[in-house]
Amino acid sequence: MSANNEANAVVRAAIEKAVAAGTEIGVQVAAYYQGRLAIDTWGGLADATTGRRVDGDTLFNVYSVAKAVTATALHMQVDRGFIEYDSPIVSYWPEYAAHGKAKTTVRDALTHRSGIPQMPAGVTPELMCDWDWMVRGIAALQPLAEPGTKTLYQAMSFGWLIGELVRRTDPKRRSIGRFIREEIAEPLGISDLWIGIPDRVEPRVARLTNATPPIPAEYLPPLFRSAAPAAVDLIPEVYELPSVRRAEIAGTGGIFNARSEARFFAMLANGGELGGVRLLSKDLVATFNVPRANAEEPDTVMFDMPMPITVAGFWYGGDRPVVRPMKNPRAFGHPGAGGSIGWADPDLNLAVAICHNRMFVPQTAQDDPILLIANAVRAALGLPQ
To answer: Which one of 29, 82, 179, 248 has the lowest number of neighbouring Cβ atoms within 10 Å?
Structure first.
């Protein structure tokens, strides 16, 4: 399926402008509109040290954009009757009951209200790659708040919480990475939606540049470092390790390209079906953009900011930083550390994926090249700004 050349040119010009200004290094953009690939373009360098250029097959670390795919795997299990949102996690994972967590529901974990944003003590990149070590460690954690009572963003722990629930409720007991490949990517004809890459694709992965100014330790909320310990921080030094790239780190380890990511979100924008393949019921997908209860509650992990999270574990759009590119408050998707983002807008039947390799946190809408590129996507398709 080919994209529209004229629409591609509009978006490519926005990418080239950002690269020329130095606010981006390498970028890929893809968009589906009304169920068809409408934009598929790119620009800049995949590796600034070698001069390797981005092309349509370049892969990017998209960090927490992976949470949207992992959450979708859980929703498929709900749709199939293997798990229920309001059931206690211990119904499926008995060991999770330790230290007063027996009443934690699946929905609590999905909406970041489990009370365990922290990673297990002593975690290292090597241990983070050991799924069994991680789930044992998470099951043994003591909650930092009574489950279900407080929003504490599960920056990294989300992937093992949700991924283990998928594994335990899958009749085949597949790992989360394999489940996503076999139940989401392959049925939709998606080639590059990786939670744990195979060796053969590593040469296509873009090299990251961390342009985010470091935050002095004294300004970091104590819970922030519990949720993302320095030893396994969301930085290139950790996430470019060959072992980490190959591990199934389901909350923060997504390695996608834009056309694959956009096709995934197009299925959601189109009510759970794409190209004659239905993965989710239309009625269930219609709930995915409903803000969770306590949506405006300050999150002490995330600098006391309210987190725009839906009942389904996605982020919803609007005027807040990071989700501005989605625009529509009824759109839903997920950002990733450093600025990559993907979303579905059911009102427009629009799905957009923006992948890049210059990690940064924009301070205003005016200095956010991702927002400018998202606006170019809407302009190229004749949609409202």
So the answer is: 82
Contact 26, 373 (CB under 8 A): no
Q: Which of 330, 290, 333 is nearest to 310 (CA)?
A: 290
> Could you identify the residue written with the tokens 């007063």?
100
| Nearest to 59, CA basis, from 361, 334, 356 | 356
The beta strand positions in 196-340, using DSSP E, are 209-210, 254-256, 273-274, 277-278, 298-299, 305-306, 315-316, 332-335
Q: Which residue has the tokens 């975690």?
A: 123
Torsional class of 290: left (φ above 0), alpha (ψ -120 to 50), beta (otherwise): beta
What pTM did the predictor assign? Answer: 0.97
pLDDT tens-place string over residues 140-151: 999 999 999 999
| Helix or strand holding residue 355 (H, E) | strand 350-356
Domains of the chain: 5-74+177-380 (3.40.710.10)
